[in-house]
Amino acid sequence: MIMNILFETTADGDLYINWLLSGLYWTLGLALSAACLAFILGVSVGIARNSRNLLVAILGRLYVQVFRNVPLIVQMFLWYFVAPDLLPSTWGDAVKQLGPPWGSFWPALICLSLYTGPPVSG
Fold this sequence. Notes:
mainly alpha
């Protein structure tokens, strides 16, 4: 009975199961992309934190402290709503005009990569 609703059509003629599979596709794509970028960033920052160059080590530690101590939901809001307004106007407008799902994919990818990088760095 409950499973039958997945195969009913929506108002635009698509099936509910297709919506769910599309969401799964985008979620897995975002998670894998963010994990790869976070690994690269985390290894780089981990090397920087152990650098003999004092400035590089301080910048690595600062990055870890900032992104580890700011909650994920706050970072999501900042990357989605604030960051496009900080860009030059032509870039900010281009980012805001990206249609779904790309308009939310890129801020989420940046946010998840930066948030997940510090635990990888050690």
